[in-house]
Specification:
By secondary structure, this protein is an alpha+beta fold. It is built from 16 helices and 21 strands.
Length: about 525
């Protein structure tokens, strides 16, 4: 019901307009985070993938509600339980004038696991687990899986297709410079001055029709106050990640339009429930604890009970978030209706810690990003304060996302703040990537940075992903969700609400996947 109630919450105010910072057919966007790389196979973080989708296309694309639509594939069919066939769009040209064919698709699939410096990119997981792709003809490919797998089209929506002619031998530096950045998308590369601007121009031969803007400029403005000021001063036309404290004022500003939507992104706490000794969990004497307390379900449950989610969403997030009772908001496929948010119960948390042998508490370092999620540092500090009330001594260390996420994926921390969204519009991929027992070869656990592992959850997930009947598949995913929640695999905090602001006279359909796509920003008619 949450998803339905907040599906499209568009708040638009005023009829005036801010000064246009560029020509009438140009769009300037101020973003909180710029991409790490322009190589579309380097990362699937939203700041990177949303930029890639200006230059490149995927076989299958998601709309604002994460419903599947044809992209470079005009259609797809399940030939048998283990085989999918994709018919490719004819007449599509790369921006250098060469034709798009099945060879480009196979090259792109092969390349995702071989990009220099991107060994931790989850992209490789979407094509692992025994999947194989073959060319039938220049405009037909088939993908086979060892067992029945129902999410093949959804997985392929995450793989940008690159030109074989321009991509062979190319590394991220070649895409960052523009040398290999030749796509089929609506815009062509002009220049990237890292830390200052990314400039693109319309692709006049785009197969999807005339692009909305002649030119788009994406400017990183990492400071929240500066990003709002840039919009109000007319230096940019649009901003993402509107700071929570500024939303109310912007909604009453006659020169601004504000759009928001309940996100598919869950914000949660991840814990090292795997190692016998964890590097940032110690006694009050700073000596490592054995066994690692986070391996104990009672300790994890106590941490969850110690957190006041209402305070986080109402005071820290100022209402621009919804307390989470599970991994995704109800309404996404596979979620469990009727679950209650964990009650705030500090006394119960103390009792559980005492029962687990930690009545005196212990020391813990809370790691997290300081430039990825709205109010991420404040959330980390607030959670640390709440945990201190039940006897835990928590130090907070936040850092840029470019530092935090690689280290976290490398299993360097013990406890931290994470956010994850469903790539496929349902809970199966969320469980697979976040909670599945880590197995690189099988394509499982790509974002399982706490190395949680429950073979019963994995077994139910495997059965679900090979079950064609939707009702039966959903029931299996719901069972897996219930088990993981009871085990406190992670600690759900809240569902993020995505908010954009722009000069009045522009309109944008807010997206559950939080992407900011310049071609979808349109002048009001």
């Amino acid at each position: 019901m949450l998803r339905g109630a907040l599906r499209v919450l568009a708040l638009v105010t005023g009829l005036g307009s801010l000064a246009v910072p560029a020509a009438a057919d140009d769009l300037v966007i101020g973003v909180r985070s710029e991409p790490v790389s322009l190589d579309p196979h380097f990362s699937v973080q939203p700041p990177d993938l949303q930029v890639a989708l200006h230059f490149f296309d995927a076989l299958v694309v998601y709309d604002d509600q994460q419903r599947l639509h044809p992209g470079l594939a005009e259609s797809w069919t399940q030939v048998d339980d283990k085989t999918w066939e994709f018919k490719l769009r004819r007449g599509v040209m790369w921006q250098d004038g060469s034709p798009f064919t099945a060879d480009d698709v196979l090259f792109s699939f092969d390349r995702t696991g071989k990009v220099e410096g991107a060994s931790n990119s989850p992209l490789r997981f979407y094509l692992s687990g025994g999947k194989s792709a073959t060319k039938v003809d220049d405009h037909t490919i088939r993908i086979t899986t060892p067992a029945t797998y129902v999410l093949t089209p959804e997985d392929l929506a995450l793989i940008p297709i690159v030109s074989r002619r321009n991509g062979e031998g190319a590394q991220p530096a070649d895409y960052n410079s523009g040398k290999a950045l030749i796509g089929t998308g609506p815009y062509r590369f002009v220049e990237w001055v890292k830390g200052d601007r990314l400039v693109m121009e319309a692709n006049p031969d785009y197969w999807g029709g005339k692009p909305t803007w002649d030119r788009i400029v994406i400017k990183p403005v990492t400071n929240d106050a500066s990003r709002v000021a840039a919009l109000l001063n007319g230096d940019v036309d649009m901003i993402d990640y509107v700071p929570v404290p500024d939303i109310a004022a912007l909604k009453t500003n006659g020169k601004v339009a504000v759009f928001s939507i309940a996100s598919n992104r869950s914000i949660y706490l991840v814990m090292d429930s795997n190692r016998d000794v964890s590097p940032f969990v110690t006694g009050h004497d700073d000596q490592p604890l054995f066994p690692n307390p986070l391996r104990d379900q009672r300790v994890r449950q106590a941490i969850s009970m110690a957190i006041d989610r209402t305070a986080l969403t109402e005071r820290i997030m100022e209402g621009v978030a919804v307390p989470a009772e599970q991994f995704l908001p109800v309404g996404f496929f596979g979620t469990v209706p009727g679950l209650a948010v964990q009650a705030y119960d500090p006394e119960g948390a103390k009792a559980l810690l005492a029962a687990a042998g930690y009545g005196a508490g212990f020391k813990l370092t809370f790691h997290g990003p300081n430039d990825r999620y709205p109010n991420d540092t404040k959330i980390a500090q607030a959670v640390a304060q709440m945990l201190s009330r039940v006897g835990l001594e928590v130090a907070v260390e936040t850092m840029p996302r470019s530092v935090y996420f690689p280290a976290s994926r490398g299993f360097e921390y013990s406890f931290g703040l994470w956010g994850y969204s469903t790539d496929t519009g349902e809970v199966g991929s969320w469980i697979n990537n976040v909670l599945g027992c880590y197995n690189k070869a099988a394509g499982r656990g790509s974002a399982n940075v706490g190395r949680y592992c429950n073979f019963r959850v994995d077994s139910l997930l495997d059965e679900a992903l090979s079950t064609i009947d939707p009702a039966a598949r959903e029931a299996l995913l719901q069972d897996a969700t219930r088990i993981a929640l009871a085990d406190v695999a992670i600690v759900p905090l809240y569902y993020q609400v995505n908010v954009w602001a722009m000069r009045a006279g522009l309109t944008y359909t807010p997206r559950t996947d939080e992407y900011t796509l310049g071609n979808d920003v349109r002048p009001q008619q």
